[in-house]
Structure formats: C-alpha cells, structure tokens
Known about the structure:
By secondary structure, this protein is of the alpha/beta class. It is about 50% helix and about 15% strand.
Amino acid sequence: MSDVTVLGxxxxxxxxxxxxxxxxxxxxxxxxxxxKDEALISEGAIRATSVYDAVQDSPLTIICLLDYPAVLAVxxxxxxxxxxxxxxxxxxxxxxxxxxxxxxxVTRNIDYIDGGIMAVPPLIGTEMAIILYSGITENAFxxxxxxxxxxxxVRYVGTDPGLASLLDLAxxxxxxxxxxxxxxxxxxxxxxxxxxxxxxxxxLTPYLNAIAGLIPHFAQQIxxxxxxxxxxxxxSQMSIGLANIRRASRDVNVSTELLxxxxxxIDRRIAAGFPSDEFSGVCEELKLSKKK
Length: 292
Ligand code: NDP
C-alpha cells in the first residue's frame, strides 16, 4: 500500500507527486498517456497501470487533470470502487462544477474534497504554495491534513464544496487585473527605450508592493459599505488621473483597451452621486443584482 495516489501527471500533477516523494511518502501514480511517469518512477513512485489499481493502492487519491469533465471521465468508470474512499480534486474549475462533483460523490458514498492551488508547479512543496480546500467531509479532510501539508500551506475554507473554487478564481481575477496593468505599464515605458528590467525591479515592483498595502483598507471599506472613510484617493481625482494615463498611452500609440472599462466604472460611480468614494466604491457598480 502507498500513502497517497496521484491521478494525472501533467506539469502540476508531477509537482504534487514529487512533493510527496521528497517528504518520504510512498506514492502511486497514474496518467492517461503512458510515459509521463518515468521521471517519478525513477524517483521512487509506484506505477499503476489502471485508474482502478491506482485508487486501490492507497487510502487517499489526489486528482489533478485539465478540467472537471476529464475528472468525471476518469472516475465514472470506477465509481463503484470509490465508495468510502477519499478523493481530493486539485483540478481548477468553477464553484458550480465543484458543487455538482460533490453531489455526485455524496450519492456514491465518496468523501470528496475540492482543492484550489494558488501556486505554480515550482512552488509546490514550499510554504509559498497556498492550497485552498473545501467540502462537506471536514472529518476526512482533517484525517489527511498532515499529508496534504506536504504540497503547501493548507487552508480549509469551509463546508461549501464550491468555496475553494470561488476564492481561487477571485484571487486569480485579482492577479489577472494586476498583471494586465503591469503589461500595460511595461508597454508604455518601452516606447521610450526604457530599460524595462530595471524599471520593473527598481520602480514598478516596489510601487505595486506599496499599493498592495492598501488591500486591508479596501477590504474594511467593502465590509462596512462606507467608501468615504479615510479616503486615500477620491474617484473624482482618480477619473482625471486615469484619463491622463489613457491620453498619454494613446500619444505613444499604446492601446487603452485594458483601462477603458475601469474608467467607465469609475465614471459611472461618480455619475451615481459618489465622487468622494475610494476606488473600492466601484464594487457597487460591479454587483449585477443591483441593476435588476
Ligand atoms: P497539463 O496540461 O500539464 O496536464 C493536464 C493533465 O490532464 C494531463 O495529465 C492529462 O493527461 C490530463 N487529462 C486531460 N484530459 C484528460 C482526460 N479526458 N482524461 C484523463 N486525463 C486527462 O496541466 P497542469 O498539470 O498544468 O494543470 C492541471 C490542473 O492544475 C489544471 O486544472 C490547472 O488549472 C491546475 N493548476 C495548474 C497550475 C500550473 O501552473 N500548471 C497552477 C494552478 C492550478 P495526458 O497526459 O494523458 O494528456
């Protein structure tokens, strides 16, 4: 018997399996396409030639595939063998997919935990990897907590199986917006033969780190619903500033398509009567139910 089974040996699945091996756990691995397990086998992993064998080989199965349809395609043919087993699904998906996967598991007497990996493969197995978990089977999760810690920081966020996914996608929404802004900034700076590496290291990164320090302040305002408390930058001022950024971008032939929707949101919030709000006030404009 192994300590853990890993189904799916893509870039991420291999990193997860390797973290267990490095910690000294016995690991059984399986992948749809043969051959992707060779490096892991040479490092001590045990090859399973079928999903059925892989799952039988340990008390805990971790699955990390491309998407949820792939997870179902792999698990459905052996669903009768999964009863009373623990499955941790590390595949990225939507909250609705996680909830229906959990419902599917409940009717088959499977302990299902949904995971959201907030890290890239090289960070797996380090404290810099944060992994979110949620699911109705909190006991099963607690039983395996020590082993799950091998992959990265463990954050159990609640019994709603969709919650890990929701928070995973929300955090990636934030990262997408930030990286989009970074790419815009670099594109602008590069129009003047700026040393982009130096610009990034000595100016942009420290500036963004300082801005990140405002996140708790925004969170406080969003919780209270008072977007005028201790304002750092009013929307009326931000609107002028963003208009200047967009004008200067166009002047150097850089498209403003990443910034235009943000200007529209800010201006809509101002037009709704809230020019003194902090930027966090635009969250009211993002709530679709408000418009119904
Ligand atoms: P890869 O593309 O490297 O690997 C995809 C894996 O899914 C392979 O093992 C592939 O098998 C398997 N697969 C796809 N379709 C099927 C199917 N129908 N049946 C069986 N197996 C299938 O992706 P990653 O490993 O990078 O990502 C895996 C998951 O981890 C994704 O959900 C991703 O969002 C998530 N993740 C990845 C991160 C990253 O930086 N890589 C970061 C955070 C999360 P085969 O080899 O046979 O094609």
